[in-house]
Amino acid sequence: MYKKIVQMNNSFIQNEHQRRKYLMEERQRRNRFMGWVLILIMLLFILPTYNLTQSYQQLLERRQQLADLKKQYQELSDEKDKESNLATKLKDETYAAKYLRAKYYYSKSWEEVYTIPDLLPR
Fold first, then answer.
1. CA distance linking residue 82 with residue 7, whole number of Å
2. Which of 27, 65, 69, 101 has the greatest count of CB atoms below 10 A from its CB?
3. One GO BP annotation here (predicted)?
4. Average pLDDT of the chain?
5. pLDDT for 53-75, tens place per residue?
6. Structural contact between residues 101 and 119, judged by C-beta atoms closer than 8 angstroms
7. pTM for this model (two decimals)
């Protein structure tokens, strides 16, 4: 039932084998070249991507620094306002006397001072 098939080995078959072998080698060279081109393109995209992510990270850090500096500026300006307000109030002699008595326990020789917490004049 089964018949053996014998391949002919004439010049046409040999030429066809040679042509197929040449085409396979050519395809392999083309694939190898395309592989190198693909690797080169990937390398060309990696460096800008790395730089972009690094720049984005710096941007986030700078935004955080800006927010911190704004907060610090607000705190310092509030503190400056309080200090200038206190300086203005201390120009009044009666307030200055009350402040000295409360803050530094200053008293005259015939007075006794009793301290009550959180009762400093503001």
1. 105
2. 101
3. cell division
4. 88
5. 999 999 999 999 999 999 999 99
6. no
7. 0.52
